[in-house]
Design goal:
By secondary structure, the chain is of the alpha/beta class. It has helices at residues 28-36, 48-51, 73-85, 104-114, 126-133, 165-171, 184-193, 223-230, 247-250, and strands at 12-17, 39-42, 59-61, 89-94, 118-121, 147-151, 174-178, 201-206, 214-219, 236-240. The structure holds S-adenosyl-L-homocysteine.
Length: 255
């Protein structure tokens, strides 16, 4: 694609969602761009089975993981601009959807500032895929008319928490927490303190749609212990709400 005549695609950045990990959950457009790109800058959440299908010499790992960034965002920003200026067609591949806690917004702003044309290709976010992979609908006529997607990464006890757990508790809908393994005890406690029933069902889904997917279930009161006993580690999504109770009814037939 770096053919200089190919003005449509040369020197362009594609911010592409990889979906939750199963290669068949890539969009058709993502699949095509992955096949055609000169280089793919990927993070750690771009499923291993997806990366395994791409020849290594086009892959560049710019991933961040857990609480500490292994690659500074500024490096990724500069690298994208540098490659685009070399006339390369670059896929910036991100787990799930590029703008759901994916810093897609920051990267778009940086590219615009540098005058680099870009396109955003949405992906299936783990915010919905993880729940479904565990047999849980995010909304349900009898159980939840809303679902909220929040980060569990920050300390719910800090004075200026950006996530208002009290307001979330009052929605009566499903609460989906991303990056929420480390602070599971804190925010489940915050929700109960805000008046949610301690018996509210909760599921934790680790590595949703990956071959080694794991699920732990419990209630607001028991899930922190259940997750620890099950050895749940990031990446995992926490699904909180009555919808999680329906899993039992469908589990036998869930493939
Ligand atoms: N842009 C991503 C989210 C990035 S934030 C998306 O739309 O899915 C990183 C968090 O996403 C992880 O901590 C975890 O909570 C969640 N996550 C991403 N992929 C996941 C997967 N396959 N299974 C479970 N959780 C996942």
């Amino acid at each position: 694609m770096s053919n200089p005549d190919d003005t449509d695609t040369a020197g362009r950045i594609y911010l592409v969602g990889a979906g939750p990990g199963d290669p068949e959950l890539l969009t058709v457009k993502a699949r095509r761009l992955l096949d055609e790109a000169d280089i793919i800058l990927h993070d750690k959440l771009s499923g291993p089975d997806i990366l395994a299908q791409i020849d290594e010499d086009r892959l560049e790992d710019v991933g961040t993981r857990g609480h500490g960034d292994t690659t500074p965002q500024s490096y990724v920003n500069d690298r994208m601009v540098e490659l685009a200026r070399e006339g390369k067609a670059v896929v910036r591949l991100k787990g799930g959807d590029p703008t759901v806690f994916g810093r897609g917004g920051e990267e778009m702003a940086h590219l615009a500032e540098a005058g680099v044309p870009f396109e955003v290709v949405p992906g299936i976010s783990s915010a919905i895929a993880a729940s479904e992979a565990a047999g849980i609908p995010v909304t349900h006529r009898e159980h939840a008319s809303t679902f909220s997607v929040v980060t569990g990464h920050e300390d719910p006890n800090k004075a200026e928490s950006a996530v208002d757990w009290e307001a979330l508790a009052a929605t009566g809908g499903t609460i989906v927490v991303l990056m929420g393994v480390g602070r599971l005890p804190e925010y489940t406690e915050s929700l109960t303190a805000a008046g949610m029933d301690p018996e509210t069902p909760v599921a934790l889904v680790e590595r949703a749609t990956w071959p080694d997917q794991q699920v732990a279930t419990g209630t607001l009161e028991t899930i922190a212990t259940a997750a620890e006993d099950a050895g749940i580690e990031p990446p995992a999504v926490t699904v909180i709400g009555e919808v999680a109770s329906t899993r039992e009814e469908v589990l036998e037939f869930l493939r």
